[in-house]
Each structure stands twice: as C-alpha cells, then as structure tokens.
Amino acid sequence: MNPPSEVAAPPAQAGLPSLPEVHRSVAVPNAGGFLRKLFAFMGPGYLVAVGYMDPGNWATSLAGGSAFGYTLLAVALTSSLMAILLQALCVRIGVSTGRDLAQLCRERFPKVVAYPLWLFAEIAICATDLAELIGTAIALELLFGIPLLYGVFLTAFDAFLILWLQNKGVRWLEALIFGFIVLIVGCFGIQIVLSDPDWAAVLNGYIPAVSIVTNQTQLYIAMGILGATVMPHNLYLHTAVVQSRSWNLDDAGKREAIKFATIDSTLALTLALLINSAILITAAATFHASGNTEVAEIGEAYQLLTPLLGAGIAATAFGVALLLCGLNATVTATLAGQVVMEGFLRFRLPPVLRRLVTRLIAIIPAVIVTWMYGASGTAQLLILSQVILSMQLPFAVIPLMLFAQDRKRMGVFTAPAWQLALGWATAAVIVGLNMKLLFDAAFGD
C-alpha cells in the first residue's frame, strides 16, 4: 500500500491541472513542528496579496484619502475582511477538490453560463492589467523621466520577466514577491512617519459612516476600493496556486493543508490591509489636512509630497513603492489569466504569449487616454478600472459560494455554516452596492 504522500489523486483531479509547471512542486514535510510546516505552505497567500496592493488601489485610496480624510478606512477594513474570508474559501475548495474555480465552473455549469463567466473573468483581468500598466508607466515617468506614453509601451516587456521567474520555480517567484512586499512596507513606513497622521482620527476612520452610502461620490470611490481589494481574478488564482504544495492526499493531509494555507493567506492579506491603509492615511494626513482635497492623480501626489512633507525621500519612496506594486501585481494577472483560460476553455497558451495578448488589450485604452488627456485622464481611468472590477465580483463570488456549500464535491470539507453565512452576506453586500451605484449613475443628479 502506498504511503499517504503517494496516494493516487482522486477522480476529481483527473486530467492536466492548471499551472502544471508548478502543480504539487513544493514538498510538505511529514514531520516537524508548526513553524516548519507553516513555512512550507507560506507563499501562495503573498502571490494573491499583491493583487490587493496594485496601482489601482493607489488611485482609489489617494482619491478617497484626499477628498474625505480617514472616512474610507472603514471600507478598506471591511473589504479586507471580506477578502480574507473569500480567499479562505478558495483554499478550502482548491485543496479538497483538486480543481480550481474555473475548472469547476466549466464542469458544473452549462456552456451558456460558463462562457459568460469566462468572459467576465477576462474583463476583470484586463481591467486589472490596465491599472498595473498605467501605474507602472507613471512610476517610470516619475522616477526616470520616461514619457508616459513610452512607459505604457515599455510595460509590455514585463512578460519576459514573468516567463523567466516561472522557469526558476514557484519558490523563487514567491521569494521575489515577498521581498518586494517588504520593500513596499519600508517605503510606506517612511511615508507614515513623515506625514505624522492624527492617530485618533485614523482609529475613528475604521468605524463605518453613513455618508459612505448616502454620498454618491463617496460610494463611487468606495466601490473602487472594494473592487481594488476583493479582486475577482484572485479567487480563480488562489484555488489553483494553493495546489503548488504536495500535501498528503488523505483527509488528514487535506485538513492540515487547509489550516496552514488559510493562515498563510490571512497573514498576507493582513499585510496588504496595512499597506492599503498606509496609502489612504498618507493621502488624508498630507493632502486632505492641507486643503488639497482633489488629489486623485498619482503624479500630482508625487509632486506634492516633497513640498508638503519637506523631505525629498518621501516622493522617492512613493515612486519606488508604486513601481514595485506594479511589477508585483503583474505576476498575479499573468498567472490568473492562465488559470482562467485553461480552466474555462481547456486551451493553453505559453505564459509569455498569454501575457502579451492580455497586455495588448489593456494597452489600447491606455494609449488612447494617455494620448488625448495625459495624466489627468489616466487617473480617472485607474479609478474606473477598479469600479469595473467591483462590477465583475458577483460573477466570481457567487460561483465560489455555490461550490463552498456543495457537499457532493466538497464532502467532509464543505464550508462550515458560519463561513457560508458570512460568505453569502458578503455576496449580498457586493450585489447591493453594485445595484445602488448603477441606480445612482442612471437616475442620480
């Protein structure tokens, strides 16, 4: 009889998995203490977390912080708690079924449902890529003086960076991502110290205010923050990338994998919350407090930081963090694109080709807007891209919840009642806010 680590995969795992180049490539020790096993599972959570701190978050957090002070910190906190719950459900589904969310949707739903879900997922990935493209191009302009339009084209070459990283192995990829995150934290540590925020007001900002729903502008930016935080493509990605670990395939092994992978994603998303909060806090303490309440452009924020804070290092740290966030988020968009295309269509493209196709689609609106409106247009396009993400969320969250409660596929690993209740409540909030935003856009003043 085979030992537990060699147990054959169940029927649900038949066929080539998504991301086959990293599937079950990281060994999990059968012996050792808590920390040793946790270290083996640490990594996928950070791959997912970088999507929660991409340049799209910067645009929404800068706009929210400069216009409304610390008020929208409550949205950042609530969105992060939603993300932690939903990503924990992704871990549970990926580990217990051996399938990713895209594969499950293809298998369960008829084509008339599955193909629109695939289309919505691709739209979400293109919106994400658009934000990364613009953010990275802005960072190149701020740090190196490369014209914005040229920077937009240069970002297409990051596909080769992704290909090289994937060939090195998932652990190398995770290590680089984690290193970037540490540098980003350091950059924002400098920002927070120099901006000297009102900490009592910061804490009060985490308490939800009625104006977030009643004020149409606040709601629009709040939806952007929600879309930039609970990102649709990350739900597909996490169910696939968690399978890079080679856990024992018996129930005990899966239970252990769910526990440690959930800890990994929770810690990573908590770190992402701190970074997103730091962006909004810096904007509130620096711009809102000084009367600059209409700062929504990343370039404008960069130019104002030095005169307002009196230290050139503040602007440099801001630009470096933006560049790192853009490069980081590129990784998740590429991997998520592979998962979605392979899972829904059972069609595989080389990662570099897939990246170039997605980036080409995102480049078209970016070039048009940059050419016609310059930096001011890119700021509005960044926020719009995040609102589009929010609109796509229900088409990923609702299938996720259906599988989380599917006893036929999940068996003993079906999500507990409290997770299902909170998950469906999260889905209801997302749908409700989207409907409110659409109603205001159609019939508001």
Automatic annotation (TrEMBL):
<feature type="transmembrane region" description="Helical">
    <location>
        <begin position="112"/>
        <end position="131"/>
    </location>
</feature>
<feature type="transmembrane region" description="Helical">
    <location>
        <begin position="309"/>
        <end position="335"/>
    </location>
</feature>
<dbReference type="InterPro" id="IPR001046">
    <property type="entry name" value="NRAMP_fam"/>
</dbReference>
<comment type="similarity">
    <text>Belongs to the NRAMP family.</text>
</comment>
<keyword id="KW-0813">Transport</keyword>
<feature type="transmembrane region" description="Helical">
    <location>
        <begin position="219"/>
        <end position="237"/>
    </location>
</feature>
<feature type="transmembrane region" description="Helical">
    <location>
        <begin position="381"/>
        <end position="404"/>
    </location>
</feature>
<feature type="transmembrane region" description="Helical">
    <location>
        <begin position="172"/>
        <end position="194"/>
    </location>
</feature>
<feature type="transmembrane region" description="Helical">
    <location>
        <begin position="34"/>
        <end position="53"/>
    </location>
</feature>
<keyword id="KW-0769">Symport</keyword>
<comment type="function">
    <text>H(+)-stimulated, divalent metal cation uptake system.</text>
</comment>
<feature type="transmembrane region" description="Helical">
    <location>
        <begin position="68"/>
        <end position="91"/>
    </location>
</feature>
<keyword id="KW-1133">Transmembrane helix</keyword>
<keyword id="KW-0812">Transmembrane</keyword>
<protein>
    <recommendedName>
        <fullName>Divalent metal cation transporter MntH</fullName>
    </recommendedName>
</protein>
<keyword id="KW-0472">Membrane</keyword>
<feature type="transmembrane region" description="Helical">
    <location>
        <begin position="416"/>
        <end position="439"/>
    </location>
</feature>
<feature type="transmembrane region" description="Helical">
    <location>
        <begin position="143"/>
        <end position="165"/>
    </location>
</feature>
<keyword id="KW-0406">Ion transport</keyword>
<feature type="transmembrane region" description="Helical">
    <location>
        <begin position="356"/>
        <end position="375"/>
    </location>
</feature>
<feature type="transmembrane region" description="Helical">
    <location>
        <begin position="267"/>
        <end position="289"/>
    </location>
</feature>
<dbReference type="Pfam" id="PF01566">
    <property type="entry name" value="Nramp"/>
</dbReference>
<keyword id="KW-1003">Cell membrane</keyword>
